[in-house]
Write the structure tokens for this entry.
Amino acid sequence: MGKLDKIAVIGAGLMGHGIAQEFALAGRDVRLNDISSERLSAALGQIEANMVLLQELGVVDGPADPPVSKRIRTTTSLEEAVDGADLVVEAVFENLEVKRELFGRLDRLTRPDTILASNSSTFVPSQLAQAVSKPQRLLVAHYFNPPYLLPLVEIVPGPETDPDAVEAVVQLMKETGKQPVVLQREVLGFVVNRLQTALIREAAYLVGQ
């Protein structure tokens, strides 16, 4: 697979706007989609605030020209967002039926070689792949909140995911300054969430004692 230059992010909320910011900061052509122009305007405002924070922390240099938010094209049209995309990242809320419905639409609207990734922290690829005709191009790319500060991304292939798709996404993550970790097989909760849940459970037990 070729270089992933054109990226669509579906969902401009808590995770989606930060993921779009990361790709734009790395010079990628980004389209950000959500169901209303108000949500998209709010996302761009949050991205600008994030960039101020990153500059204050010394993570990035002074103000960019043009600002990162100006490098992101926003649209409420899913068709426009994914037109010509090399990679689509789904970042809508954690509802399996909503995600499956969205991936079914993405399956029809994108090129056969477009990689489809979910930022889900809950659902494994095989649960989502039921909605697409080519499960070989679907995987999970699980970012952590906030994605513009935390470098780890869990890359989770499904049983049928093409290894070339995995490698292409891993390479993209490295080029955008992330630290991708590839799971050898899908498992509910992945790795970090399962460890975090175990820690919380033990903490609750200690408090109870």
Summary: Residues 37-57 form the longest helix (21 residues). Strands lie at 6-10, 29-33, 72-75, 87-90, 115-118, 138-143, 152-157, 179-182.
